[in-house]
Amino acid sequence: MEQSSLTNFREKAKLLDAEAIRRTLVRIAHEIIEHNRGTEHLALIGIRTRGSVLSKRLATEIEAIEGRPLPVGALDITLYRDDLSRIAPNPILHATEIPFDITDLRLVLVDDVLFTGRTVRAALDALIDLGRPLAIQLAVLVDRGHRELPIRADYVGKNIPTHLKERVEVRLQEIDGKDEVVIEESV
Amino acid sequence: MADAAVVTGGTTQTTQWTKKDLLGLRELSPEEIRLLLATAESFREVSLRPIKKVPALRGKTVVNLFFEPSTRTRTSFELAAKRLSADIVNITTSSSSITKGETILDTVRNLEALKVDIVVIRHPAAGVPHAIAKRVFASVINAGDGAHEHPTQALLDLLTIQEKKSRIEGLNVSIVGDIAHSRVARSNIWGLTKLGAHVLVCGPPTLIPPKIEELGVRATFDVREAIQETDVLMLLRIQHERQEAPLVPSLREYRLRYGIDRERLKLATRELLIMHPGPINRGVELDSSVADGPHSVILDQVTNGLAVRMAVLYLVSGAARVVEEDMYESS
Fold it and tell me: Which chain A residues are Cβ-neighbours of B43 within 8 angstroms?
């Protein structure tokens, strides 16, 4: 989960540029299709906000390969955070938009960065409240390590060893005006 | 489309909610009102789920402290709290120690000693929630104080207008009825004018307070003016219980002059919404053919009320911690 901090950060290195992000998503799309032997009963669920953008791009890639669209939903995990009673004021809430029944579907949960695993834990709880999927898999653009819960990703764009004090920033065209993944250190 | 909403949401919603209490719309900035509406919009989806419950307020306790009869508002707050996983206790005047002469402040302090987090208060006297909010740590939500304010009602009205008309700014909104005794009218006037709507209040001269124009609205005694060119027609109930002397000759007379029926609605020049905070006096301010007609969004108001109250409970519970931390730090 994001931590709002007053410390300043400085870019240390660029990990992925726009072209690398595109290639990574194409590869993950192929992996998802291969692993699930097609796209039947498959749906993508993006975690707001950047995971949701990535899930739409993945859906486009998968449709380009398989020739048929698949359902895509957006999940807001704010109400399921385990630190809600510790942070103040409460974070801004966005709507969960999953316009289909997830029961008996294979879901691929999509997020930008896998870090402590707490966001994914919240997302799993949120999804289970919406129905009983056949299976839930996890796709992330970046896995930066430092897990605090027993959670791992099924599809990983890039594994990046990081220091706890560093920050991984995923920027996407739809939100940030450009595509890149950078690592930042505190100054 | 959804993304555009998120992106604009991310850029415009820089305001954070830092108020422990929700006492009225008068005290709120337009940004705070928009944040409340955006949060409520996000909560609407929760009530459409098979499992209508989220864990956000798990372990919190909410008390409904009602010194006036209420079904709609009390039930709405109760369901909102339950859908957020909070525990809720209902206290009504008839069954409480108030009848034994305990002061309201003592009642609330006793509730606080029981570690209650949020107190929802409805009281016939204006200003009671404000007075209590200043003296307790718990969050106080005004569920209606006399003829003063009823903020969650106005917020659900704003949410309904925004949902149906996609905007509030620039719309013509007419409020017809007992403006003088209506907290709903007062809260709506604050909210609507802050968000840029043009408000016209209408009713018999005895029910329009003098100098109401100072609140930034226009006033008329002619209901035809309120119907023509309006986008929203908001009807209020004639409040027998809040009038000391009869201010209208009879309900029949009121109906003849101000009641909205299908015939009168033909004066409308715009596609308007019919709104009413309930309970409706059918056949007085509003004819059944209109209340149940195609323009009526009265039941949408009720649905949105639940989302609004979930949003208010969620936001004040987060802000209460900010206030508490500040108090600890300064002590």
Answer: 93
Look at A130 and B49 and tell me if their CB atoms are within 8 Å: yes
What does the block give as tokens for B11?
Answer: 């850029």
- What's the mean per-residue pLDDT of chain B? 90
Residue of chain B with shortest Cα separation from A100: B49
- Give strand pairing partners of A112: none
Contact call for residues B160 and B275 (beta carbons, < 8 A) = yes
B contacts of A126 (beta carbons < 8 Å): 54
Q: Residue A67: CB partners within 8 Å, gap ≥ 6? A: none
CB contact under 8 A, B315 and A90: yes
Where are the alpha helices (H) located in chain A, listed in sequence order? 18-35, 50-66, 118-130, 173-176
DSSP state of B241: G
What residue spans in chain B does CATH classification 3.40.50.1370 cover?
Answer: 14-149+303-320, 151-298
ipTM metric: 0.84
CATH of the domain spanning B14-149+303-320: 3.40.50.1370
How far away is chain A from the Cα of B51, in angstroms, using its nearest Cα? 6
Q: How far is A126 from B22, CA to CA, in rounded Å?
A: 28
Q: What pLDDT sits at residue B6?
A: 35
Closest partner CB to B7 (pick from A89, A93, A175):
A175
For chain A positions 33-52, those within 8 Å of chain B (CB to CB) are 48-49, 52
Q: What is the pTM of this model?
A: 0.90
Question: Which of 3.30.70.120, 3.30.420.40, 3.40.50.1370, 3.90.930.1 is the CATH number of B151-298?
Answer: 3.40.50.1370
Strand partners, A184: A11, A167
Tens of pLDDT, residue by residue over B164-180, are: 999 999 999 999 999 99
Q: Where are the domains of chain A?
A: 16-84+91-186
User: Model confidence over B4-31: pLDDT tens digits?
Assistant: 333 333 344 568 899 999 999 999 999 9
CATH architecture, domain defined by A16-84+91-186: 3-Layer(aba) Sandwich (3.40)
DSSP code for B22:
B
The segments of chain B whose pLDDT lies below 70 read 1-14, 95-99, 240-245, 321-331
Q: How many CB pairs under 8 A join A and B?
A: 85
B178 vs A: CB within 8 A: no
Question: Which among B42, B311, B319 has CB closest to A76?
Answer: B42
Which residues of chain B lie closer than 8 angstroms to A95, CB-CB? 41-42, 44-45
Q: Do the chains contact at B43 and A80, CB–CB below 8 Å? A: no
Work out whether strand B61-66 and strand A106-114 pair parallel, antiparallel, or are unpaired.
unpaired
| pLDDT in the model for residue A119 | 97
Rounded to a whole number of angstroms, the distance from the CA of A11 to the nearest CA of chain B is 23
